[in-house]
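Show me any protein, fold above all:
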Amino acid sequence: MIEVRGLIKTFGLKPVLRGLDLEVAPGEFVTVVGPNGAGKTTLLRILATLSRPSGGRVRVAGYDLPDGAGAVRQLLGVLSHQPLLYGDLTAEENLRFFGRMYGVEQLGDRIRETLKLVGLSGRGRDPVRTFSRGMWQRLSIARAILHDPPLLLLDEPYTGLDPDASAMLDGLLRATAGQGRTVLMTTHDLARGLALADRVVILSRGKIAFAAQRAELDAEGFSRVYQQAVSSRQ
């Protein structure tokens, strides 16, 4: 589903991604962790067609980027640091706007179903500007999954969520993985990222410092490996 070879991204003279290689198989859940500035968000923005690579090759679902960006966007559900929501619209109106962009069939039913999944059934007709930070994040998750995309790109999806909402997202992501959807997620929560993933990747200074299957690690061992991988590249 994702194939990255020798990916380079620079901002001016500053290198952010330094020849990164990554593959994600269809239906695989991969968690990417790393310190601030490691290049996690930059990687997801390139895969989401929001930023252009400076060098290397990027393919998503068989389409080369950036040339195939239009086709790739139809296949993506993206949760980024920007909620991409309109505060003066209600939750339902926000989802209807995005649903029409993607040509979602039986949109009204899908909106109700998705709001229920993220725990916002009773707030669908409320303006989003009245929502708490966590509710904005819940609605952003609903927006990302509304059109049932085969690939989810999630950049720190637990930001702003309380324990109940985090548990909701855990369940939603586990169900998503069970449906065969491909997920690439960044997070600072090592234990949660390990528990959800099929494979974990540690990114440091723009390169992959470590990668392993979840079955090869436990939470304590992963934390230890993370500290070693990050400190060795400081």
The first helix runs from residue 40 to 47. The chain has two domains: 22-51+71-75+150-234, 85-149.
